[in-house]
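pasting for the record
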Amino acid sequence: MALNFPSSPISGQTYQSGSSPYYIFNGNYWEIDRSYVVNGTSGTSGTSGINGTSGTSGTSGNGTSGTSGTSGTSGSSGSSGSSGTSPSGVATTTLSPSYIFASNNANQGSVGNGTAVIFQTTNASNGSLITKGSNTQVTLTSGNTYKLEAIIRRFESSSSWGTFRWYDVTNSTYVGVEAFGEAVTSGTQVSSTIVATHYVTPSVNTTYELRQTTNNTITVNGGYASYEITQLTPTVTVNNGTSGTSGTSGTSGSSGSSGLVDYIGLITTGSISTTQNITGSVIVSGSLNIITTSALQIGTGSGDEGGEILLAKSITNNSLTGSGITIDSYQNRLRIFEQGGNARGGYFDLTTLGNGVSTNLAPTLYLLEAYANVTYTLPGSFTEDPCRYSVVNNTVNVSSSWFNTSTYTFTPQKAGYWEITAAYDVYRLNNVEAAMAIKKNNGIVVTAGAFGVVAQQVTKIVYLNGSTDFINVVNVGGAANSRSQYEGRSWFQARWVGE
């Protein structure tokens, strides 16, 4: 029987199907969980040994009792099986762990940083070890191991993201893996399914709650938030059964036929030249060479998640949190981050990159330059006048379309801090005051001027959100005067300096 193990297990996760044993994931591969036992009566007499497994290429050997042989050439017949030992039967009590499942039934608005999420409804519960003390807090009895899992399936954010994390109220500290959600704009900043998880064995009775952990203002939508807390170590009473009688000797096993690898196995030598269906994990000792003329596909994709590779951490000289470094596909992004803690890392949004694989992923400069080429009369009476930069003459790793030469506005499509420098001939005659200013979204961020000044220059570093924020430059003066603007005197420069 093929065992369909979960595709993305975590350390400590268990699995059982039909009449198979219980398995546990040890962080690297699945193995039999010997803490689980099944109901047993007095053992019966051992049966005769069954056919031996297929031998690997070349060598002969004694066949052990087992299921259909794994892929490989036929080996020689195994020798007679030994007599069965006397097993001890066991009797067990019924496992009945404590658990609770709770959810919300109404919108919770104005959820700021450190605010606990409200869960009004207790949908299901069992046992006395987990106590829901209020609509925000739950207390776990000491001396047991628990899994805490909270799922937020829909929330609205004042920004483009939101995070939630379990909080240990008793010890005043955040715990577990933080849930992170990107908000998609569709009239309202809305995010979908995120999960916050924590495993704990408290030494004293401990109270927990789920909190929002960003400076954004969040609305948790009603009917879309829930948590499930489960006791993972229920008590089992075991009593010895009676011993079974000795089994008879098994006959010689014949060579097993070639079969598919459909369980956790180990390939120690040779090669696979035909299509094989592998269910579960394959453990490779040594090197693995994959020679193909087509693509190597990892993962099939589910929701926002695509393929994922987990790289082991170095043994020494690293300060990373979690089990390793993850490289994965998420929505339009290729992400690299540590598998644990706050998931530190970075990403590339492929939709912002050039066609034909043309974008340098680590450009050293983002720059746009423009200048004015016009003669006109500057207005007096301190009337605001736009600086008329009508020619974009230089771009580096940016698009010239970011500067509108009709409205004289700069709207970058890359978020971060931009250094804006502008110069303009603002001369309004001797002893007449003139000035110029840089404006963000029509609000002045810096201004400079003087009496009788000719070419005025201003500089300011400002944060622009990469979508709607824009920059324009204006001048004012106490008297009207006709001036000629040209490239060497009247120019605009925007340079990205970082996030």
